[in-house]
Amino acid sequence: MADVPRQSGPDDEQLVLATLRGDIPSFGLLVERYWKMVFALALSRVHESGEAEDIAQESFLKAYSQLHTLREPWRFAGWLGKIATQQCVNAVRRDIRHKTLVSCETGESADPDTIPAYSSNPGLTEPQIQLVQRTVGRLPEKLQRLIIMRFTTGLSAVQIAQQLGKRPGTVRVWLHRAYQILRKDLAPLLEEVES
Amino acid sequence: MNDCRRYQDLIEEYLGGTIGEGRLEELKAHVAACKTCAEEFRRCTMMQEVVADALQSQVTAHDAAQAIVERLPNRMNVRPRRGGVRVIRVRLAVAAVVLLAVGLIGGFVAGRHGPAGPALTVAPMQVARVDGTVLVRHEGSDTWQTLRSDSTVCLGDTFHCASGADLTLRLKDGKSTLELSENSMLALKAYESETRFFLEHGHCRASLESPHGPFFIETPHGRAEALGTEFTVTVE
User: Fold this and answer.
1) What is the mean pLDDT of residues A97-106?
2) Which of A9-18, A69-78, B91-100, B188-197 is least confident?
3) β-pairing, B222-225 with B158-161?
4) Which residues are CB-contacts of B70 (< 8 A; sequence separation ≥ 6)?
5) Measured distance CA(B35)–CA(B110) in Å, rounded
6) Residue B78 has pLDDT above 70, yes or no
């Protein structure tokens, strides 16, 4: 039974304040801590790893440039998640405009199923990875963010509630709802993986 | 069966990362004995792993951090590239010595004392109290410094009170004060013919001795003028 991952080293607030004092390596530590979360948020929206990496990088650069506006440095993860979500929305809008232009010019339309999926996990096949990404991508935005924060950063439901400024009970209910949807939609895949 | 329902809740607590040590031990013991709950537990943890794996990046967090730090505007604080560390350090040391010498000679020739730097106008205000982490950024600078009780206040300074911190400035008459609360950011815009601050966010309280000259606190949403002796401004 795996233990819940715990953060070690300076906490987010200390790293944010150190960054504001000009200590850039502290921001590097924040990137290391939340890279997986931001990348996963982006990948669940755009389904293309290269684009997701670009969005994740842009999200961190934006966070750095606006760090002085972060009122509650201990809520860095929640604030960063919002920036990443907004960057995804912008990217998807740009993408739609671009694809509309391309399809107008070439008469082609993009089929989401033909977009190659990527994961470093050798245990999952490409269709399985696509299924998981689409399933997470279909979750309502608030549930999606919770699931990704929980599964990629190891933050507990209570810590996520603090990050998002919600009540722990609310986050628990939302997580429960997200688990139910994932369990139902991923049931065939889980059976496949098991067998 | 009723018993198993309780363990379903514990499984969900485990998934939420909120299960305590005692309850975790209890869950482990039950799962070892109950086939149905063991299956349910395995499915839940597998779901967690499958989602995390399918959304995993090929780029490690460490490499991503290095790439991003290299793109940040202030590159001087980034670790130098491999291979040339020693040479760069020596060059930096030589450059520092040359700059120091030029600065000293320039200062001597100009008959000036104290450090040369961007033209900062010292304001006739004092830091009366600093509690917690309060940062200051001088006008034209990108760097935040820790504010101390003996720090000089300059025109254009921006003050940032971190969580749990507060700052009190004594204004030019030596009696009036301006208190800045935690999680607030305030800039000094003018102090001569009128005193003017800009509250970007947070909360501040002015206690002015009468008679006082024109005193304003600007915010992103409007401007407040002091008509009496005490007033507060909050920007959500």
Assistant:
1) 56
2) B91-100
3) unpaired
4) B78
5) 87
6) no
Question: pTM of the entire structure?
Answer: 0.56
Q: Provide the b/e sequence for B18-53 (b: ≥16 CB within 10 Å).
A: bbeeeebeebeebbeeeeebeebbebbeebbbbbbb
Question: Which domains are seen in chain B, by residue range?
Answer: 2-113 (no CATH), 126-235 (2.60.120.1440)
Judged against a pLDDT cut of 80, whether residue B105 lies above it is answered with no
pLDDT computed for residue B43 by the predictor: 86
Q: How many CB atoms lie within 10 A of CB A118?
A: 20
The closest CB to that of A147, out of B51, B53, B64, belongs to: B51
User: Which two three-digit tokens encode residue B99?
Assistant: 């700059």
For an interface test with A, the pick among B55, B58, B180 (most A C-beta atoms closer than 10 Å) comes out as: B55
Minimum CA–CA partner of B202 in chain A: A71
ipTM over 0.85: no
Q: Report CB contact under 8 Å: B65, A64.
A: no
What residue of A is the nearest CA neighbor of B38?
Answer: A1
DSSP output for chain B: -HHHHHHHHHHHHHHTT---HHHHHHHHHHHHH-HHHHHHHHHHHHHHHHHHHHT--SS-HHHHHHHHHHHSS-GGGSPPPTT-HHHHHHHHHHHHHHHHHHHHHHHHHHT--S---S---EEEEEEEEEES-EEEE-TT----EE--TTPEEETT-EEEE-TT-EEEEE-TTSS-EEEE-TTEEEEEEE-SSSEEEEEEEEEEEEE-PSS---EEEEETTEEEE--SSEEEEEE-
Q: Which of A35-44, A92-101, A183-192 is predicted least confidently? A: A92-101
